[in-house]
Amino acid sequence: MNRIELDFEACTGCGACFDSCFVNVFRWDDGAGKPVIAYVEDCVECNKCELACPVEAIRVIPDYAGVYWPPVI
Amino acid sequence: MDARNTQDLILAADVLVVGGGIAGLTAAISAKEADPAVSVLVVDKATCGFGGKANKGGGNLAFLEPDDDLDEMLRFRVEKVGSYLEDQELLRDFLSGTYGVLKRIETWGCTVFHDPDGAYVYVRYWEGHPWRMALCEQDITESMLRQAKKLGVKFVDHVSVVDILKDGDRAAGAVGFSIIDGRFYTFKTKAVILANGCQNYKLMRRWASGRGDGIAAAYRAGAEMRNAEFGSFINWVFADTKEVCQGAENVLYNAKGENISKAVRPKIEADLDSKEVVAWYKAMLAGDGPVYANMPENEIAAFSQKAFHSDGVAVRPITTAFWTRTIGKAMAASTKPGPMQEVFPGFIGEQSPVRVDHQMATTVPGLYAVGDIAAAGSAWAGAVPAPPGRMRGGGMMGAMWMAMRGGPAAAGYAATAGEPAVDAAQVEALKARMFAPLGRQGGIEPQEMVRAVQDVLSPVGNTIYKSDARLRDSLERILAIKGQLALLTADDPHHLAACNEVVSMVNSAEMFFVASLERKESRGWQIREDYPERDDAEWLKWVVLKDDGGEMKVWTEDVPIDRYPLKP
Ligand SMILES: Cc1cc2nc3c(=O)[nH]c(=O)nc-3n(C[C@H](O)[C@H](O)[C@H](O)COP(=O)(O)OP(=O)(O)OC[C@H]3O[C@@H](n4cnc5c(N)ncnc54)[C@H](O)[C@@H]3O)c2cc1C
Ligand code: SF4
Ligand code: SF4
Q1: Which residues line ligand 1 (CB under 6 A)?
Q2: What is the pTM of this model?
Q3: Number of domains in chain A
Q4: Which of B331, B320, B248 is nearest to B290 (CA)?
Q5: Would residue A72 count as lying in a domain?
Q6: Long-range contacts of B520-523 (CB under 8 A, 24+ apart)
Q7: Is residue A15 part of a domain?
Q8: What is the ipTM of this complex?
């Protein structure tokens, strides 16, 4: 499974990562004003959240070896 | 945890657009431009302007300059690609409209690159390649989002639309739920435009979020489907990272060191085809696997690297950063670097069968479909998986062109159609059905069923190199999964959305196998082991599907070839 590292100290709570995820991996913690990595198992390493973060507070670490692939033959 | 918000919400507008990707945004803007008095609401299960594929692609846009040879392009498409299953009138309209699409999106603030002399920067795969590819930036949908907001379009994010509401025969809106808090949404609208993408079966990583929700909703609402048998697109993937290996199709070598691409693709072609997948399959069955892509010979990869993934042709910082980051991470993780890279055909799907006419109207009055959801169903592309329909750069361009027709058509319909009546019992029944998996005890989780569906679709013998026996067996397995859908369980609204996606995947897979069985010939992307020839005498026909009281009704319709300029 992929890992997503979030630097809470650096995060400014701008919401760009939340908006950019097309498979809804993030949720929003209204209290903290910061994103929550809620469904990391759905992450497909598009890297859009990482690219969107203005302060480089988020890092996506893909697990290519762990990808499930059914038989092709 | 049941995080459901029990407060239902009812929203009204003239036109509802389902899906805020490039097709949905283009439809919304062009509906507003056609009639500013029409109210337009766009809803997306992710974030409008950020979901979808257009901001994760190559950003190349197929087009013809006004002086280019339209007839030559048509002939190329029909003879070499779509194999006479195109609606040639629609294809002609589309191709002749591409230049105008580029001009128009620039007025919306979208970046398309120009030469110093003002002409569009473009690339071609080889000299004489019959179409051009202009280049845009990956923020194209964000530019469109801003333009749509300026025009007064309204947006709802993170709501998954599940079903179309009906008033008698006509569409009357839609229903769905928030994937964040589970709130139930009713959209009461005079017209609905489905722009929520095609079926991609959730296997190919990073490819798309389209799971055929719109296709299934249209099917349940009684809309006809066409060309469903061509929904088995693949891309070659590296065996170690499952990242796409662009251009592998031209440089495949078996384990004995023999080139197996040459026999089926003597010349470089514009896009992948199913014939080299069959060559791979035969090599594997003969014990000549694994198969490798010879990377130093891979001209398409080198070309794409220069033209699309770097600033080699146009300076595109957003696009370049995306490709550098995604491909870069995969390359760094590669366990077997070297010139010969093991590859295999990674199943995608791209089934897009919602049937639409030249105004993008489905067969349900008031229900329209634009973009990937209806690319094959519109028949502009013929006997190939569409988008891109073996026409690189045809995905976004096709989506925008279709939406520029469908948006105004739906606005026009809404301006004259009366207020639809929404039946409370119908809403309640749909609501009960969509929420049924939530909290179901001892059921099957959606991911388990997704895998079962993928296990049927991924083997090349089931979906690319087809035979009666394998198709029947696959259909049986899909119907067995269909029989278990009533056991789906979800613990929260996020997983509830996943349940609806599985239902949609099973619906698409059933359509694919039923239509593939019906077409007893090989044509375009469809290759049948048991009917290896193209049969123009019998099969200049479209396979059409429709729900008939719970049964999938299938029939054929003659392609009106007499009316068309090009005949086999
Ligand atoms: C890797 C890749 C590279 C590509 N490169 C190019 C290229 O260079 N040139 C080109 O022309 N084309 C390219 N394409 C194809 C092109 O991007 C698509 O054809 C086009 O973007 C499709 O747009 P769409 O709006 O019809 O569908 P999508 O982009 O799939 O958008 C569908 C939207 O609907 C939403 N949605 C889905 N289900 C629901 C639901 N139930 N309720 C509410 N909302 C929902 C989704 O969240 C999404 O935002 C590429 C595609 C891929 C995957
Ligand atoms: S990498 Fe893509 S899929 Fe993964 S969390 Fe980030 S935006 Fe979502
Ligand atoms: S994009 Fe970066 S700064 Fe903004 S909310 Fe996400 S992690 Fe925080």
Answers
A1: A 22; B 18-24, 43-46, 51-54, 56-61, 160-161, 195-197, 207-210, 213, 371-372, 387-388, 393-397, 399
A2: 0.98
A3: 1
A4: B248
A5: no
A6: B523/B83, B523/B85, B523/B383
A7: yes
A8: 0.98
- Judged by CB atoms within 8 Å, which residues 11-40 of A form the interface with B? 18-24, 27, 38-39
Residue A23 domain boundaries: 3-61
HSE, CB side, 13 Å, CA atoms: give it for residue B424. Answer: 1
Pick B432-534's CATH classification: 1.25.40.10, 1.20.120.1760, 1.20.58.100, 4.10.220.20: 1.20.58.100
Contacts of B454 in chain A (CB under 8 A): 70
Indicate which CATH number applies to the domain containing A45: 3.30.70.20
Contact residues, chain B, for A20 at CB < 8 Å? 47, 50
Ligand 2 pocket check for A45: Cβ under 6 Å: yes
Q: Read off φ and ψ for residue B515, nearest 5 degrees.
A: -70, -35
Residue with tokens 């891979």: B298
Q: Report domain extents, chain B.
A: 237-347, 432-534
C-alpha of residue B209 to centroid of ligand 1, in Å: 8
The sign of the CA dihedral B182, B183, B184, B188 is: negative
**Residue A8 domain-assigned?**
yes
Residues in chain B: 568
Give per-10-residue mean pLDDT for chain B (568 aa): 70 98 99 98 98 95 97 96 97 98 98 95 86 96 98 98 98 98 97 98 96 98 98 97 95 97 89 96 98 95 82 90 95 92 98 98 98 98 92 96 98 96 96 97 97 98 98 98 98 98 98 98 98 98 98 98 98
- In single-letter form, the type of residue at position B564 comes to Y
Q: Are the beta carbons of B500 and B490 closer than 8 angstroms?
A: no
Burial code of B211-229, b = ≥16 C-beta within 10 A, e = fewer?
Answer: bbbbbbbbbbbbbbbbbbb
Using the atom order of ligand 2, give the atom closest to the CA of residue A24: 8
